[in-house]
Amino acid sequence: MRMRSYLIGFAFLSPALVVLIAFFLTPVVLTAIFAFTNMSTSTGISGGAYVITGNLLTHLKDEGVPPKIADALSKTSFSVDPETLARAKAAGTDPQFLAEIEKQFSGRTFDDARSFERELKGLRHRPRAIRDLKLAAGQFELSILNARFATAAEARNAIDTFLPSVPAETVDQIVQASYTGWRWTTANFGQLFANPDTWRIVLNTIFYVATTLSFTVFIGLFLAITTFYLPTSVATAFSMLWLLPRLTPIVLYAVMWKWFTWDGGFVYTAAKALGLPAFNYMKGSVPTAWTVVILINGFIGAAFSMILFSGALKAIPVQQLWASEVDGASRWQQIRYIILPHLRWPILFVTSYQTLSLLSSYEQIWLTTNGGPGRTTMVWALEAFNTALNNYTGNLQYGLGAAMALVLVIVGVTLSIVYLRLFRFDELLSRPKIEF
């Protein structure tokens, strides 16, 4: 009987479990997996090939590969052998011209295109057009540069054939570095901690989350308590006005703030009329840029907090407020000893939720300051977004962006645990000592 009850309960919970796994746990798991790869636009998300490029050879010199070997890999030669002759035949080279080449130069190698073409010009059946002669000569070109190899073995064999005297360990180093696909790695986290900009972004994020969270909680609490003591009709109208930032579409909300703070906007015009400094307050200075960023997100969060706190205030037993008034308690005493203790749970929820929301939010900053002026308002979530999905260089670094997102997940979970202990979560779940 008990087993049947468990099965029925699990059946009722299964849709919620599917949603939880599909939309919450799966993205986190995939983020953690991608964080330990070097996936990017250049590597792709599937397997890659082995390609030796000029940039790779420059990098290999910095990594200790002898310059003589790197320079030799970049050179091009021309060889007349059965393989290149077959390649020229398949390309449609004139058979008589090809027979002359085989007869005159079979087994010979030329160091550059000019010397090989000079020899070809002496043949009787050569093409008369210079362009056709160069195309024919190109079929005999031997170069490892920019050639694609499907496997490491093919790349290793090509290097051994091209430069047979290169040590095996150097060949392995070149082959490993030439792989264009993604690899498992922990280098993303090392890169984050080694980058000097990282710590500046961390400080920006701490400042942004701390100040905006304080604004959200305290202003939302102040608005909820204020409207609680106002007449119902006035409180309703006042609450509706404060809900506008939450209800307004984010793009329209950002455009309104731009109109409000940019050159020629309301603040600019008012400041100019009053003889105060008039400039673009959204991007013109660091203090004003931070003020705008905090207010934009703070008003949205304050509207959300006010809704929750107002609902919690209406759940307070009215008998306690009546009793306090009979005892001569002032409004401040009611707030301190009755209202705030009853709001511990809503305050915990708002603080935790808003912290996680602010840590992962970047839309408002992206649409307004975009991290400027310079990178002074750049926060962690916006940097992760730019790294993984909006990189101006064109090489989107999925692995590095996922590593940054994983750091946010870890920080968010840690802060949630701290909040649960700080607000004494176990006491909030205990049975009430007084029932009404």
Key attributes of the depicted protein:
MetI-like fold, mainly alpha, 436 residues, three-stranded antiparallel sheet, elongated
Folded structure, characterized:
- The strands form 2 sheets. Strands 3-2-4 form a 3-stranded antiparallel beta sheet. Strands 1-5 form a two-stranded antiparallel sheet.
- The chain has helices spanning 2-35, 54-62, 67-73, 82-90, 95-105, 113-120, 130-138, 152-162, 168-177, 187-194, 196-229, 232-247, 250-261, 266-273, 286-314, 318-326, 331-342, 344-360, 363-367, 380-389, 398-422, 425-428; strands spanning 50-51, 77-79, 109-110, 141-142, 148-149.
- It has 3 domains: 49-74 and 145-180, no CATH class; 76-142; 195-390, MetI-like fold (Orthogonal Bundle), CATH 1.10.3720.10.
- With 436 residues, the protein is an all-alpha fold.
- The chain has 22 helices and 5 strands.
Low-confidence runs: none
The main pleated sheet reads as:
3 strands, antiparallel
Structural class: mainly alpha
Order of strands, widest sheet = 3-2-4
Number of helices: 22
Looking at the structure, the CATH topology of the largest domain is MetI-like fold
CATH class of the largest domain: Mainly Alpha
What would you give as the CATH superfamily of the largest domain?
Answer: MetI-like
CATH architectural grouping of the largest domain: Orthogonal Bundle
